[in-house]
Structure formats: C-alpha cells, structure tokens
Amino acid sequence: MDAVDEAIIRCVLQNARSTYAEIGEAAGLSAPAAKRRLDRLVATGAIRGFTALIDPQTLGWRTEAFVEVYCKGNPSPAELRRNLDGIPEVVEACTVSGAADAMLHMLAGDIAHLEQAIQRVREVPVIDRTESVIVLSRLINRPRL
Fold it and tell me: Quick check: 23 pLDDT over 90?
C-alpha cells in the first residue's frame, strides 16, 4: 500500500460511486490507471466491497443506543452472532474486552421500539443481561477505514 492506493481509498470512502476519472484525479493517475489500481485493491482484499449508506433518520430510526451484553457461560463469537443476526435493530455487534462480553450498536424508531428490540436481545438464550446507554447527539461520525 502506497500513497496512491491511500488516495484511491480516501476517494472511494468519500463517494463509492466516484468515476475512474475522479479517482484518477484524486490519486494523480489517468482513468485507466485508476481502474487498474482500484481493481488490484479489490482483488487483494484491501477493498472488500462497495455499499450504499442509508441515513437511518430517513427510515425514521432516530433513537440510538449502545448496549453492553453479558453472556451466560462462554458462547463463541459465532454463536453470539447467529443469535443476534435476526434482530435488525442491531446494526453493529463486537466482542470486547472488559466485564461485558459484547457491545451492540442499536437503532430504533423511538424509545418504545428500542425497548422492544433490547427485550428481544435479552431473550437470546446465551444472554444473561444487558446494560444500555442512549445516544443524545453524535459529535463525530467519520467514514470507516
């Protein structure tokens, strides 16, 4: 990975639908050279895919929370993922160090919707309890690298 690759990645992070000409301009390359470099980044797995980012507020999901999950026993991360995958309000889930076993990022339409979604999380057989904090405002929201 060199400075040209990093410029290409920054460009597609800003707009995954950038044209090869735009990517080339950002990286100091011609459009065909930008295409070759972008294709190589995809082929090597440095870029794993392209996606549309939906503003949850346009869907009416304006309530956001981070939920610590404490498990019964010692379920594997794969087992925990399988159990949480069917809860659409869970938009991110990570295993973490510390007292909690996992951290969830959840979105919902309102507090009642969030409460119902957290209840569904609590009903997962391997989960013992949860602790939640509700987001009041987002201060920084950068694209993921």
Answer: yes
Residue 65: CB partners within 8 Å, gap ≥ 6?
Answer: 105, 106, 108, 114, 118, 132, 133, 134, 135
pTM of the prediction? 0.69
Torsion angle defined by CA atoms of residues 112, 140, 93 and 1, in that order, rounded to the nearest 10 degrees: 160
DSSP annotation of 56:
G
The SS3 call for residue 118 is helix
Find tokens 């980044």 and name the residue: 41
What's the mean pLDDT in 96-123? Answer: 96
Residues 6+ apart with CB under 8 A from 87: 117, 120, 121
Beta-sheet strand order (sheet of 127-134) = 90-95, 102-108, 63-71, 127-134
